[in-house]
Amino acid sequence: MHLSKTAREYFDAQADERLKWRRKNPYYHDSLESFVGFLVPRGSSVLHVGADSASLLNLLAPARGLGIHASARIIGEVNKQGILPGLQFKQTELSQVKGVFEYVVISDLLGHVDDIEMLFREATRLISWRGRIVVTQHSALWGPVLRLASALGLRVPYRLENWVSRTDLENFAHLAGLEAVRSGTRMLIPKRVPFISTFFNAYLANIFPFTRLGLYHYVVLRKQDSRSPIPNPSLSIVVPARNEAGMIERIVKELPTLGEFTELILVEGHSKDNTWQEIQRVAKEYGAKKKILIAQQEGKGKGDAVRKGFDMATGDILTIYDADMTVPAPDVEKFYRALVEGRGDFINGSRLVYPLEKQSMQFLNFLANKFFGLAFSWLLSSKLKDTLCGTKMLWREDYKEIQAGRSFFGDFDPFGDFDLLFGAAKLNRKIIDMPVHYGERTYGTTNIERWSHGWLLLKMTVFALRKIKFV
Q1: Distance of alpha carbon 457 from alpha carbon 414, whole angstroms
Q2: The pTM is what?
Q3: Quick one: 308 and 343 in the same domain?
Q4: Both 197 and 294 in a single domain?
């Protein structure tokens, strides 16, 4: 783990006392581990680097969990603690660890490491192409406070250490072939004060300028080269269609064929015109040339249609494409290329870069799109210009994880877009905007009910505040 000789001696000397200090400051340790638990899904495979306690891996309940430390005495003390079945704690160097993990957690260790870049390089070797490295480290701003607390016997004895800023963290990561997906600073009050601690740490700490004052930095990293190992990934395009009879044949003819195969999944939703009959006709006529699946939804809303289509899909990559074709069909290839090349893990269409065609978006809609883009950029810690564009693309494996974790958010999204955006953000996936040209409708009228849907979006914004931001 690239600990210096003095750092090893420090940990060996403190081994018998580590648990005592943790018990003396339970609020800090419990809060930190709870936040790491928010970032790392339960049931993942996890490597904890610098494990001086069993509590974090016990909390994460990984399918496969390994905790390592360079100090044999630290590991000896950890192995005396209550450990969940299947977890292992070993005295070893990171360079000696074998296998691949979904998450590597490096918590409060970098201050003692004499080669942070090499530590990150070794951690990078141990994550899959979809894996993440989660790092937490004390802020230099709190250095004098922590030294004073140590001198007063309120925390573990102090030793001279690295003071690594969040910018330093991201720079070391870049040098090691990693990039930040999510980062921030947390905890304004490291002691439990009823009501006050929660207010300051869960709420104020997430609002500028308090975002710069937290006790510890955190960063979630992915490989810069996150190309899929899947050769020529297949693609499933889900097209929810309601009252779009005049568009169905164009959709089938113009959507590109990509990857090993491309399947079109047309899901009709309680149309008042002959959309379903047109879907059946087109599927029969073009079925010999293209792989086409069709269905009628039993539930209501675009979100229900999207989920039904995704459940039918067999492709490696899943896409939503709106049946009004206001986004050009050939643009789907741009989304596919960006995802396969590893530019992002979730490709989100953005209509607000190129000039809009006349009548394609009313002025109030434009303002609403701008507002929700800014709001969700802050909420999800990802730069999003347009959250309401109907074209989105993600890996099927990521969708399965979003689906498995849906109980965290509940069935809240009638549109289908935000369920995916929130889920991708919760999984620390890199969300990237793909600018598209947005055109006028050429058939029918919009299914959007501006005022009622706008109110729903406001409610979802508040919902996201509670579930994702103020945690």
Answers
A1: 10
A2: 0.91
A3: yes
A4: no
In the numeric block, the tokens 């590893």 are attached to 342
Quote the pLDDT of residue 371: 80
Residue 450 counted as domain residue: yes
Q: Please list, in sequence order, all residues whose beta carbon lies within 8 angstroms of the beta carbon of residue 296, skipping any fewer than 6 positions away.
A: 267, 268, 269, 276
Q: Which of 161, 187, 207, 442 is nearest to 326 (CA)?
A: 442
Share of the chain above pLDDT 70, in %: 93
Do residues 247 and 329 make contact, with C-beta atoms less than 8 angstroms apart? no
- Contact (Cβ atoms closer than 8 angstroms) between residue 137 and residue 216: yes
Amino acid at 431: I
d(CA 125, CA 95): 9
**DSSP H or E stretch at residue 221:** strand 216-223
The conformational region for residue 351 under phi > 0 = left, psi -120 to 50 = alpha, else beta, is alpha
Binned at pLDDT 50, 70 and 90, residue 404 comes out as: confident
Q: How far is residue 245's CA from residue 281's CA, in Å, rounded to a whole number?
A: 11
* Nearest Cα residue to 335 out of 353, 348, 316: 348
Chain centroid to Cα 85, Å, comes to 28
Which domain does 274 fall in, by range? 235-469
Look at residue 361 and tell me whether its pLDDT is greater than 70. no
Q: Is residue 229 part of a domain?
A: no
Q: Evaluate whether 154 touches 24 at the Cβ level (below 8 Å).
A: yes
